[in-house]
Amino acid sequence: MKKIEAIIKPFKLDEVKEALHEIGLQGITVTEAKGFGRQKGHTELYRGAEYVVDFLPKVKIELVIEDSLVERAIEAIQQAAHTGRIGDGKIFVTNIEEAIRIRTGERGTDAI
Question: Nearest to residue 69, comparing CAs of 6, 10, 29, 26?
Answer without folding.
Answer: 26
